[in-house]
Write a structure and sequence with these properties.
The complex is a heterotrimer of chains A (170), B (754) and C (353). Chain A is α+β, with helices and mostly antiparallel strands and 170 residues long. Chain A is built from 5 helices and 5 strands, in the order E-E-H-E-E-E-H-H-H-H. Chain A has a 5-stranded mixed β-sheet with strand order 2-1-5-3-4, with helices on one face. Chain A is globular, with a radius of gyration of 16 Å. The termini of chain A are far apart. Helices cover 24% and strands 26% of the residues of chain B. Chain B is built from 15 helices and 34 strands. In chain B, strands 5-7-3-17-14-15-16 form a 7-stranded mixed β-sheet, sandwiched between helices. Chain B is globular, with a radius of gyration of 27 Å. About 1% of the residues of chain B have low confidence. With 353 residues, chain C is of the alpha+beta class. Among the domains of chain C are: 48 residues, Uridine Diphospho-n-acetylenolpyruvylglucosamine Reductase, domain 2 (2-Layer Sandwich); 104 residues, CO dehydrogenase flavoprotein, C-terminal domain (Enolase-like, domain 1, 2-Layer Sandwich), CATH 3.30.390.50. Chain C has 14 helices and 12 strands. A 5-stranded antiparallel β-sheet of chain C has the order 4-5-8-6-7. In chain C, strand 2, helix 2 and strand 3 form a beta-alpha-beta unit. Chain C is globular, with a radius of gyration of 20 Å. The C terminus of chain C is likely disordered. The chains are: A alpha+beta (170), B alpha+beta (754), C alpha+beta (353).
């Protein structure tokens, strides 16, 4: 048996043939497409290390059957930087030391990107934005304990991105 | 720019500006782009996937495995069982030193704990291997398992931790307690905890004849290589281990574990490279944990609140087949002054995997008990908790009487308390509420961790173009070795960091020692520092002996190495670049080696510890008992700080582990079966981002001339200590409920008035 | 995980036909099903992926003021739907208190209703479980029971239903629309999940092959919008299942309760509607004394199923608190920490009506 699927993977259209219906999106990326930036921490949707954007929304790739993703757009950590130019979220993570061992980091960054896209942080750090970031990032465990830096990085990246959007609109 | 007296006889001074700089992580760009390759990210040609089948009983033997069913599953290549497992050169149950732990590698059909590997299925795909393991449908002859700390037979262990005495005493505690004006005797319980690094244990193993290439995360490359060389009967140099990035270790990747060896055996069995990654639930057994403890503390004070005696007794557990005794009572050795201190340990044997070093082993559970007891004693004395600790401030190490090599704890107390706003704290509990009506409590604890060193080596090279290379088999598990050690390396050679090629994370480099005991930066840093000194000395010898060099004859005056040049120490107008010196000598490069280890004289003469003070605020819903650690301030003094940015992150991590210890993590053991029933990250709670609203870590200046040449103590574990107790004490202050069972959960607080 | 056949029907009729075969299971996002398949708890022979069925992803405002939500609507989309959240704020709050943003982005409405218990012994193939293997016994009894039921349990099963979403749905008389080979039927959400009795394996009113196609909230449920809250007690601030939870919705007039709706989560095999407590509040003053009496009434029949008596008192307290919160009004902006005791109201926020 073979299960053909079409994916837009980091902006590139791909036609793939799965040889097994059990393959999760995570194992497809990691074991068959050599996109190993997305990590497996629990394989049960309990840690967030495998977070990718599926049709623009952050999801746990470990609980997503690849066969069900036919026609979907998938964005992974590998698709974020433009060559050597890091994405604002990536830059902010480095600047705020929002990582230690780095294993949860790709998932944190993709989750942050999803959170910013959800538009719930509105004031660039004012009001209860920080609390909304903490809640919004709580699906991504970090055992090293980089949460303070992660929250600061997400707030800064949100500001940078919204300023860039405003500048582009002006 | 700081002068580093980089050797004890500084004929050749080196100056550098890297140490002390808050540079961002060198490996940051790799980690934020997904380009950093962790062990399980490797996929050599022809690789197969292996999956473990693990035991669902805690004691007995495997009586049946449905091999035909597994082998019939499409894609399954082989099933490894005790019947066909390739031979080892060494008995995996042999134990010749305390850092050697017995492991389960299919040596027989016995089961001695739940989640013990009982077979390995190797297949063309991960899906097939995993399903093959499920299809084995094992059957057992089960025996009754002992899983209850309270019910098992107690024995006195010969040693605790890595070979420390199980009991120590100074002074007469019985007399001290008898003479005390005030006394408490309290018992605290801490649960079994599992490291749960985000990266599951993983190995990719490939054999080439009698040569073995491995990708696996390890906190000790050389130690692991030596262990594997013994087990497989190979010369160590035949084994190459790559471990550039660990996805967290916390002690669980310090020693060779059974699953890792099984991955190598599986590759041997099938003659192809094999990847074996533990599933999260399989990490609750064969790769170590922190044992549960029941600790009893007896404290006595005189009428003024000075301790007259301190007793700390720990009951803990080890496995049925090996010994690791959590040295929790030893937390009372070095912190508070008392004319009499007695510490002791007892243990039981449970049918669990063997407990192991877990971030602040002994110190973490010991600290939460000691800091809670100090808080209780302060309350009995009618004293502010900080005032009580200052009253019992130790000017010399209490148990040994040795002077401290340095101790800026008073400054930590003062700076932390000021930053936190401790001064306004009401002494009685249940006095503070926020605008929403939540109970607010403030607590504090003292942090302490020994400044340890292991043994490490490094090699430093200056190349013909004047650039440098430093090589060391160090481990970066998130603490920042790639960055901090490179900073030390740059200064050790007097080079701009951009001119330095820093190589690490591979077993074919000089042994950098173990990344554990908060000792890695000190050990590896000292080795690098010495290697750099040796290299510069050789380079200086070339120049000062060469009549064509502007440095000719400067041998007695000495030279200064800086920015890739050697300068005459007594005349900085006379200098020469490294490149010129090497070119004239016709050398492609010049190299030196160095080692780092604790100096016996310093160790004999001084007590060496990092210290800190942690202040915590919690909020508690008065009716529901839900708790949140809303604010933590920690002030820590740990000698020379190589990189403040990374050190702050280490402190944050430790403080969060403290919060977790007090409020979240616990392995729930079903005492009937001996199985951890919450062996997953939904039910074994570690803090999420929303649990950590506000953290602040202050770096208190401390200069230590004794601890090692660079003056480095460790920062990786200290912040758990103090923090856990501070949170627990804040819960008391908020609610009036005195926590003695950890973690503290809402049902504990039901008795507190709503 | 076993190998399986994967089919993706385009219509409800095709789906029901495909799921008629023995061993078939409907697949939504798979956030629970795929997990249970990895554990080996479920080994379906055929997965019927219902996410692409036309119309199943629609959120519709009904002419009478109610709303109809397709079974394949994502939890996050429903929670963020302004019209829905305005009419049924407690439901939106409960949705956002569940799991993580990643799970909510994937998980479907139908799947949320059909999620299985989190009982550790149900998840563990080596443990006796009458739900997973009828007749094998219940290892949870006498085991670790902190998360287990205090209402509606039986000697055969003490598991709880883990959903947050379903709790306010039960309170608000939501209706489940079901398609089967015989056509469409409806069931009240509050009775949709079965109590264990002596058949714990039967968990819902669905017959084999039947499919949830939509959820309907009646117009009357929107009448509580000004005073509706969901509150969830957790052992960490977010991303944790409830120890206990409660939904409370009130209609108030002149300081008195004209109508109350109360349901509890984490206490039984179904979201637990507390009708006796509701009756007690009808016409009562909207004050703490009345809420305390209602909370007592809600737990009258509760009894521990193991070492979990604390849950009864915690449930009582959370009902009372949820009523107090509901009485003080639905916040204008959703709290930063939905359903959390730490979700302090923002300064200057007036309760919206």
């Amino acid at each position: 048996m073979a299960w053909p699927i079409s994916l837009t993977l980091n902006g590139v259209a791909r036609e793939l043939v799965l040889d097994d219906p059990r393959i999760t999106l995570l194992d497809l990326l990691r074991e068959r497409l050599d996109l190993t930036g997305t990590k497996k921490g629990c394989d049960r949707g309990q840690c967030g290390a495998c977070t990718v954007l599926l049709d623009g929304r952050r999801v746990n790739a470990c609980l997503t059957l690849a066969v069900g993703c036919d026609g979907a757009a998938v964005q992974t950590i590998e698709g974020l930087a433009q060559g050597d130019v890091l994405h604002p979220v990536q830059r902010a993570f480095i600047a705020h030391d929002a990582l230690q061992c780095g294993f949860c980091t790709p998932g944190q960054i993709m989750s942050a990107l999803g959170l910013i896209g959800e538009g719930l942080i509105r004031e660039g750090g004012a009001g209860d934005d920080a609390e909304r970031v903490r809640e919004g990032m709580s699906g991504n465990l970090c055992r090293c304990g980089a949460y303070a830096g992660i929250t600061a990085a997400v707030l800064e990246a949100q500001r940078t991105m919204s300023e860039a959007t405003e500048a582009a609109a002006a | 720019m700081s002068d580093l007296p980089l050797t004890r006889a500084p004929a050749h001074l080196r100056q550098g500006s890297s140490i002390g700089q808050p540079v961002t992580r060198h490996d940051g760009p790799l980690k934020v782009t997904g380009a950093a390759r962790y062990a399980a990210d490797h996929h050599p040609a022809g690789m197969l996937h292996a999956a473990l089948a693990v035991s669902s009983i805690a004691r007995g033997r495997v009586s049946f495995l449905d091999l035909p069913a597994a082998l019939a599953h499409p894609g399954v290549v082989a099933v490894m069982t005790p019947a066909n497992r390739p031979a080892l050169a060494e008995d995996p149950d042999a134990k010749t030193h305390p850092f050697m732990f017995r492991m389960d590698v299919l040596q027989n059909d016995r089961v001695r704990y739940a989640n013990q590997p009982i077979a390995v299925v190797i297949a063309e795909s991960l899906e097939a291997a995993t399903e093959g393991a499920a299809l084995l449908a094992p059957r057992y002859e089960a025996e009754a398992a002992q899983a209850d700390l309270a019910a098992a037979e107690v024995f006195t262990p010969p040693a605790v931790g890595p070979g420390h005495p199980a009991a120590m005493a100074h002074g007469d505690t019985a007399a001290g307690l008898a003479a005390a004006a005030r006394r408490i005797s309290v018992t605290y319980e801490t649960p079994a905890q599992y490291h749960n690094a985000m990266e599951p244990h993983a190995i990719v193993a490939a054999w080439d004849g009698d040569r073995l290439a491995i990708d696996t995360p390890t906190q000790g490359l050389a130690m692991l290589r030596g262990r594997l060389a013994g087990l497989f009967g190979l010369p160590a140099e035949n084994i190459r281990i790559r471990s550039p990035f660990l996805g967290g270790g916390f002690g669980s990747k310090g020693l060779a574990s059974g699953p890792l060896v099984l991955g190598i055996l599986a590759a041997r069995l099938v003659g192809r490279p094999v990847k074996l990654v533990l599933r999260r639930e399989q990490m609750f057994g064969p790769v170590g944990h922190r044992a549960p403890t029941r600790q009893t503390l007896e404290l006595g004070t005189d009428a003024d609140g000075a301790l007259t005696a301190l007793r700390h007794h720990t009951l803990t557990a080890t496995s049925a087949f090996d010994d690791f005794i959590e040295p929790a009572s030893n937390a009372s050795h070095a912190l508070y002054a008392s004319p009499a201190i007695a510490t002791s340990h007892a243990a039981v044997r449970l049918d669990t995997g063997t407990p192991m070093f877990m971030r602040a082993p002994g110190e973490a559970p010991g600290s939460i008990a000691l800091e809670s007891a100090m808080d209780e004693m302060a309350e009995v004395c009618g004293m502010d908790p900080l005032e009580f600790r200052l009253k019992n401030y130790a000017e010399t190490e209490p148990m040994s009487g040795k002077p401290f090599s340095s101790k800026a704890l008073r400054e930590c107390y003062a700076q932390g308390a000021a930053r936190f706003g401790w001064a306004g704290r009401p002494r009685a509990p249940r006095q503070m509420r926020d605008a929403a009506g939540l109970l607010v409590g403030w607590g504090m604890g003292t942090a302490i961790f020994p400044a340890l060193m292991f043994q490490g080596e490094a090699r430093a090279t200056i190349r013909r173009d004047g650039s440098g290379m430093v090589e060391i088999a160090a481990s970066d598990m998130g603490q920042g070795a790639w960055t901090a050690l490179a900073q030390i390396a740059a200064d050790s050679l007097g080079l701009d960091p951009a001119r330095l090629d820093f190589r690490s994370g591979s077993s074919d480099l000089p042994d950098g020692g173990i990344a554990g005991g908060s000792a890695h930066t000190a050990t590896a840093g000292a080795a690098i520092h010495a290697a750099g000194a040796e290299t510069i000395a050789r380079l200086a010898a070339l120049a000062t002996a060469d009549g064509r060099s502007p440095l000719y004859g400067a041998g007695n005056a000495g030279v200064i190495a800086r920015d890739g040049r050697l300068f005459r120490r007594d005349d900085e107008n006379r200098s020469e670049s490294y490149a010129d010196i090497l070119a004239r000598a016709g050398l492609a490069e010049i190299a030196g080696a160095g080692s780092g280890a604790m100096e016996p004289a310093a160790q004999a003469g001084y007590a060496m510890h990092a210290h800190g003070a942690v202040f915590a605020e919690v909020k508690v819903d008065p009716a529901l008992g839900q708790i949140r650690a809303t604010r933590l301030v920690g002030a820590f003094a740990a000698g020379r700080i190589i990189n403040p940015r990374l050190v702050r992150s280490q402190y944050y991590g430790g403080m969060i582990w403290g919060v977790s210890f007090a409020l979240h993590e616990r392995a729930v053991l079903d005492k009937r079966s001996g199985r951890v029933i919450n062996a997953n990250l939904a039910d074994y709670h570690v803090p999420v981002n929303a649990d950590i609203p506000a953290l602040e870590a202050m770096l208190v200046e401390e200069h230590d001339p004794h601890v090692n040449a660079l003056g480095i103590k460790g920062v990786g574990e200290i912040a758990i200590t103090g923090s856990a107790g501070a949170v627990a004490n804040a819960v008391w202050h908020a609610t009036g409920y005195r926590p003695r069972h950890f973690p503290i959960t809402p049902d504990h607080l039901l008795g507190a008035p709503g | 995980m076993n190998r399986f056949e994967y089919v993706r029907p385009a219509t409800i009729a095709e789906a029901v036909a495909a799921a008629g075969a023995p061993g078939a299971a409907y697949l939504g996002a798979g956030t629970n099903l795929v997990d249970l398949m990895k554990l080996g708890v479920l080994r379906p022979q055929r997965l019927v992926d219902v996410r692409r069925i036309a119309g199943l992803d629609r959120i519709e405002a009904l002419a009478d003021g109610g709303m109809r939500i397709g079974a394949a609507v994502r939890n996050a989309d429903l929670a963020q739907d302004a019209d829905f959240a305005g009419r049924f704020p407690a439901v939106a709050e409960a949705l956002l208190a569940g799991a993580s943003a990643q799970i909510r982005n994937a998980a479907t409405v139908g799947g949320n209703l059909m999620q299985r218990t989190r009982c550790a012994y149900f998840h563990d193939l080596a443990s006796a479980c009458n739900k997973r293997a009828p007749g094998s016994g219940c290892a949870a009894r006498g085991g670790e029971t902190r998360q287990h039921a205090v209402l509606g349990w039986s000697a055969h099963c003490i598991a709880t239903h883990p959903s947050d979403f379903c709790v306010p749905l039960a309170a608000l008389d939501a209706v489940v629309e079901i398609a089967g080979s015989g056509g469409m039927r409806e069931a009240p959400l509050a009775e949709f999940h079965c109590l264990p009795g002596d058949q714990p394996a039967r968990e819902s009113m669905l017959a084999p092959g039947e499919l949830i196609v939509a959820l309907r909230l009646p117009a009357a449920a929107a009448g509580f919008a000004a005073h509706a809250r969901y509150l969830k007690l957790r052992e960490r601030t977010s991303f944790a299942f409830a120890v206990v939870s409660a939904a409370a919705a009130l209609r108030l007039a002149d300081g008195r309760v004209t109508e109350a709706r109360i349901a509890l989560g984490g206490v039984a095999a179904r979201p637990w509607r507390a009708r006796a407590a509701e009756a007690l509040l009808a016409g009562a003053a909207a004050d703490d004394a009345a809420f305390r009496r209602a909370a007592d009434a809600a737990l009258t029949e509760a009894r521990p199923s193991g070492d979990n008596a604390a849950k009864i008192e915690l449930a009582r307290r959370i009902v009372r608190r949820a009523l107090l919160l509901a009485a003080s009004g639905t916040p204008a902006r959703r709290p930063a920490l939905p359903a959390s005791p730490f979700a302090a109201p923002e300064d200057g926020d007036a309760a919206h009506v």
